[in-house]
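Narrative of activities, Objective 1.

The group set out to show that a structural description can be obtained from nothing but a protein's sequence at a throughput compatible with the screening campaign. Below is one input-output pair from the validation batch, recorded exactly as produced.
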Amino acid sequence: MAVISTIFRALLRKGALVGVIVLLLIGLVELFLWLFMPVSPYVTHRYTFQNNMKPLGLPSESVFEVDARELRKRPPAEDREETVKILIVGGEGNYQPLQSVEDTWWGRMAAALEKRYPEAGIEVGLRASPAGARVAAGSTALRSGISWSKAHVPEIDPDILVVAFGVSEVLDILPDYQYNPTAVNTLPAASRFPGWKDKMVRLSQVARRLRHGRHARATENDERRSVLEAKNHFLRVMGNQRSVYETLPFDVSPPRRTDPSRDPSLEYLDGLKAFQRLAERNDASLVVLTEPTLHDDLLSLTELGRLKRPRWLKRPTPESPNGSGLRPDPAWVERELTRYYDAGEDWAVSADVPFVDLNRETVLPKSVENFVDDTMLTQAGSERVKDEVLPVFDSLIKKFLAK
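Output recorded for this entry:
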């Protein structure tokens, strides 16, 4: 028994020694990877879309990269003394999967700023809420954007925080909406690392590489890519949306928001204030943009024919208590957006926050030259938006570089 006990203790000592050596090796590998070869904890999805979009004012090919945070990124130019980080959080009008980063208004703006300031590299991240992504009744792009920002703004650490909402805040409001002054402030932060595997990925570079490898080998990703990258996939989807749109009745009685207790524009203002507090906590400058749309009370038949709602208004009727699809009245949408944006601009002036109204006819004429549908911009529309916002960002970059 003594011999067995001695052997057992020796094995334990050797096992412990081997365990310590293994842990030290793993620690050294992790240290090396963190210092010299770090990778993001977020898997990136990359697609190349081919659609015959030139007749509609967009390129026929676009590269769309988005990571697991729903973030598109534009890396800064290399060999620059300073890097300025800009984060844009907005609604569906900024989503633009049919434009590569360099074609978007924000990609164009960043390139122009780097030409003006050769000492600065402009890094841009964009998180936009695509139509159809909000499945909860009454959910809006603004609410989704606030929850996302509470989770991700601290880790992204932007120098400039840009918010651009409006369309969803008009079209996604339920008929029985009641204004709650605490609703926006009590929105929870989106979960960044919900499970134990996610927490391991947060802490370990090795775990990150294992996840990236599994993602690259996953057959479901290949299946999804084959669907999305099929030639003219998005063109067919837009055609199907148009077919559904044409079957819907016109909304002849849009709501009148005269009662403050039922006015969702107050929640829009609360959202802007919430983003201001978030920017201040993270030592970032805030910029507010409006979300432009083709909706207008003077739309021609040509422009009206281009309105393709990826999601419809739903209002209860006696025949359909859960809500029936309706085509929104473009004039009502325009009036509501103007009301929201006028209130937003008044607040921005009082708070000394830069505010750019992109929904004005003098900035972005409401025509098929600038819009692919009711929110998607053409190449020409993106260039006009870039020209309009460039002076504001130019001023902020000057202040940043002068620090």
